[in-house]
Each structure stands twice: as C-alpha cells, then as structure tokens.
Amino acid sequence: MAIEVRSNDRVDIVDVTSDVADIVAGEMQRGICTVYVPHTTAGVIVNEREERLCSDIKNALERLVPRDEGYGHDSIDDNADAHLRATLLGESVTIPVRSGELALGTWQSILFVDCDGPRTRRLQVTVVEGCVGE
Ligand code: ZN
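Above: the input record for the complex with zinc ion. Below: its predicted structure, written as tokens.
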C-alpha cells in the first residue's frame, strides 16, 4: 500500500506514524512492516518527533552535506546535496508488529525526511505476517 506525503520546505520532516499504523491495523497479529521511500532525494528514519530535535536533524544534514559545495551532479539538476543527504538517511525502515500494532519504542516515530521539497511523495508500506521471535 502507499502513503502520499506532502513536504512544505526544501528540507522537511513529516511524521507518518499514524498513516503507517492505519495500514497495519487489523492486517495481522505478528510480523514486520517496512516503509520504503522510492525516491532518490528523500529518506525515512525512526526517531523522536520533537520540534527542536527535528531542527537539529535539519541543521546536522546541512553541516554534514552543505548545500553549495560545487558537487558534480549539480550541473545536472542542482540537487546533489539532497541525493547525498538521502544516502545518509536511508531509503527504508522496518518496524516489528505485535498484537496488530507497530511495536515502536515510547519516543519513536516514523519520520519521512524530504531533502528536495516541497513536493508530494509516495511511500510504499509493506506488511509481512508470521515472524518467529520475540
Ligand atoms: Zn538530481
């Protein structure tokens, strides 16, 4: 299944936890859920959705991969920093499902990170039933 996400800034963090939880609800008792970003300038992480932390994450991305460094890909479409930031974030996360719910930690949320917004993106959510383990 897919989730449509709208980012509002060039670098924007959008909490998609409830959208993913809605897809998982009622699908199965135990298993895993993956959230996959089929884009090359965005990523997804599991972390705390706290306003100052989200600002810190954006600032850290800017420090790690500055916008204007004269990257080779900038001559193509001027967004090399977004591609590089996306590689640091990763394109998918996996969350255990227990009792039909996402088994996230207390402070964990599923955060979509757009590095080249604003735009509308689609995330792919896949649920797999029947894992053995905890
Ligand atoms: Zn590009």
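Notes for the reader.
The longest helix spans residues 51-64.
The pocket of zinc ion is lined by residues 73, 76-77, 79, 83 (CB under 6 Å).
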